[in-house]
Each structure stands twice: as C-alpha cells, then as structure tokens.
Amino acid sequence: MRFLFGHEIIDHITDLNKGSVVSILDESRYESILFLNALLSKSPVKAVIITPNELKTSLQQEIVEFERITTATEVNLFVSKIRESMNNEGVIIHNYLHYLLLKEEESQVLKMIEFWINKIGKSGMVEFIILTKGTFPSFEKKLNSLLNGYVEINIKPGMRNQYSLRIFRICKPEYHGEEFVYTFDRNRLLVKWGDEFTESLPKESEEEIKKKIEFLKNNIFGIKIERVVNKPLPSMNVFDKWLYAQATDMPLSYIYFLYPEKIDEFLRKIAIWNIRGLVSIKTVTPTIPDKRLNLRLRNKIAMKIPTPIALFFLKKRGNTVPFEVYNMIRKASAFYISTRSSEEEKEGLDEVEQYFQEYAARETALKTLLENKESPLTRFDLKDLPKVLSLSLFYGYRLKPKVYEREKGKWIIDIEKCFICKNIRSDKPVCGLLVGTILGGCAVTFKEKFTVREIECKAKGEQSCKFLLELVEKSSQM
C-alpha cells in the first residue's frame, strides 16, 4: 500500500510503499532532521525519531543511551519495543547509526537492518535511516543497495536557506535522480516547482500561463499591477513575499526598468498570481520611454575621469548616512528582532534586509540615469563596470573601492575602509549589506545577471573587505 506524507509536491514525486526502509544522506545529519521535521510535523501519520541526543523538533523523540546500549542486538530490541508501542503503524527516524558504527562491526549493523526490512515489510511502518554522506563509504554503498531506496540532501552553495533533494528508486521514474530545490517558511516545506516555491501542485495549465505572459510582454508600458484586497496569500518563500509586497500597485514598466535582467522570471510570477486571483491587471495610458541605448557624450566623458570629479561633472554629490548612526540603527534593529523572532524568522529578516538594500540601489541607479537624461533602457558597456561601481559606492557610502577584473566576467571589489564591520569580530564575513548595493546597481546599468559574495572581511582579521562579482549570463532583451 502506498505511503503518503500529506504534502502535495512530495507525494506527487515519490512512490513509496508502507513497509519500506529508506536512507537519507546529507552533509551533517542536521539537514535531514530539518527536512523530515517540516515534512512530517503536520502529517496525520505518527512519527518518532530515535536519537542519542535531544533535538529541537516537534516530532516525538526516544533517546537511545549508548553508554548503556552498545551492540546491534541491544539496539534492535530497543527499536522493536518502539514499533510495538506504535502498533507497527507510522514513521520511525533512526538518527544514531553514526554512534553504533563506532561501536559495532559494519556487517553486524547491516544484518540488523536486513532483519528490519524482512520484519516490517508487510507492516504499516516507513523507516528512515539518517547518515552523513561519505563518513562510512563502504557501509553507505552496501546500505543503499540493500534498502528500498535512498535520498540525497545537499546545501545549495551561495543560497541562503536553500537545499536540494534527489530521490532514488522510491519515486516516479521521471523524477529518479532529478534535483528538487526546497526551502522552509515557518516550518513549512516549500519545494521549487516551476518558478516558485510551494507546497501545492499548480492548478493552472502551462498554456494558460504562457498566454498571460505574452499579454504582459505586449503591453508592458501600459499596465499597472494591483493587489487584490482581502485575498489570503498562499505559502511563499521570503523573496516571493517581498516581491509581492513591492511589485503590487506599481506600473509594470517600472518593474521592468528596475529588474531588466529578471523581467522574464517576474512576468511569469505575475501571470501566475493573476490567474490565481492574487493580483489584478489594470490597463493604463502607455508611457513609452526614450529608446536610445547609447550614452550621451557628457556621461561617456564621466566614465573616463576620477570618481569625485565625475560626481561633480554629473551634478551629484556624495549622499551618505553617518557611519555611527547607521550602525546604531542596525544594532538596535538586530536586538529587537533577536528578542521577538525564531532563528528561522531572523534568517528571513536578514534576507529581506538585503533585498531592500538591493531595491534601494536599483531605485538610485534608475533615478541617476533619468536625472542625467539617459533612457531607462540604456545599457552600459561592461568595460565601464569598475567606474560605475566606484561611483555607486562613493555616492552612497563615501567608500573608495578598488575595482578590477580578475578574469573575464569576474571582478574584485576591494574596500579597505569599510564601515559596515567597524569594531566587529566574526568568524565569517558580515558586510552582506553591500551585496545588495553592488548587485542592484550593476543590474540596472548593465541589464545583466550577476552574483555577488563577500570573500574576505576585516571582521575576520583580514586586511580589507573583498567582494567577488560574477557575470552569470547574457540577458535576453525583450
């Protein structure tokens, strides 16, 4: 009989029967616990996690004491009692194999698991064995060949609070080994399906979405997006919530000017939101922008001269927030958040702060273009990227970075006097605030997709704060 988790996306992907034993391989065992906790916390199925240490989870826990229990036989007796107490119905998560393998021969542990497979094969149980990938390579290989299937979980590098999932054998054939990206929102498991993170299968057809996108593209300068009042929002990841709040009640053309490199992605989201009744599309008098794409002569000259002179030449003066005031506000906000939010909510708020900083940088870049009589469609040449970034950071923060191309499509932004990490000591970079500024300014001026990450930080004791800016791909133009 098929086992269902009660999660539309996961149940659609998996093909898992009751009586199955499955391994979950991850990077630290923590990722598996997070995944299963979110997946099973609202499930009608009873779930128990057997663990050597108490965990932060809403699932029922049974502590196995390895000071007292030292052999596979003793573990088997302990687990059997738990199965009996559950009437052989539900889910058991085994989070202790790494301890047992340090005390017992691998062959004995495999015999124990083989016994379990035969014992629960006709029961209503589903059992998950958590193991850190690569820690016991020989055992891991034999285990995966023995079980009904296995799952691999990885942290997505450079992506905050995002993970990837691959399922083998216990899924529909078309999903075997396919990567599914997922995240969490208040203990809800949201899987990336199409272009959005969700826990529900889409109700609209792809053809319907494409028609709506085509309409939006053809009328991009004559449409305003408005939110539907009193319509409850479905589960969304942090970025989609932020985008919904920012993009609604705004002309579609302005979204295009602010996010030229992401417009295809945004149009798809807006089309889906409209079909689902979350936003309405209002036709307004079209405002056609100047379609001249080349820089005016005075602005071309500004790209060739020193930054302070260029700011004067462009009739701009440094517009900065005092360092002490800025840091005081950030510290006060951080303290307020820490007293009122869970760890997950705090991470989300950090993410939102970066989005707002990026949005502010995009607004500033667009406003500067218009004030200097350039078209919002103007695309700067990438050879001017060091100058544009120098102007942006000097104009916004009075920072004087050294910007140079390390190799084709990769630039280093080196900031020796960075106020963000002033008087801070940390074992990881802390100047993520500037990531949004760099990303937003570059996107509006160059109409390209970039990624940015801080690779060195003075808070870690290094000489300067360095950021790596990478060109992701050439953007297609509408």
Please provide the count of β strands.
Answer: 17
CATH architecture of the largest domain: 3-Layer(aba) Sandwich
Question: Can you say what the CATH homologous superfamily of the largest domain is?
Answer: P-loop containing nucleotide triphosphate hydrolases
Summed up, the helix count is: 16
Strand-pairing-aware structural class: alpha/beta
> Helical residue percent?
25-40%
Largest sheet: 10 strands, mixed
Strand adjacency order, main sheet:
3-2-4-5-1-6-7-8-9-10
Overall 3D form: globular
Low-pLDDT sequence parts? 317-326, 339-344
Q: How far apart are the termini? A: 50 Å
Classify the beta-strand content into a percent band.
Answer: 15-25%
CATH fold call of the largest domain: Rossmann fold
CATH class of the largest domain: Alpha Beta
C-alpha Rg, in Å?
27 Å
Quote the average pLDDT: 86
**Total number of distinct structural domains:** 3
Key terms:
40% helix, Muramoyl-pentapeptide Carboxypeptidase, domain 2, ten-stranded mixed sheet, 21% strand, 478 residues, Rossmann fold, globular, single chain
Describe this structure in words.
- Helix 5 (106-120) packs parallel to helix 6 (137-146) and helix 12 packs across helix 15 (385-397).
- This protein starts with 7 loop residues before the first helix and ends in a 5-residue tail after the last strand.
- It has 478 residues and is of the alpha/beta class.
- Strand 16 and strand 17 (465-473) form a beta hairpin.
- 40% of the residues lie in helices and 21% in strands.
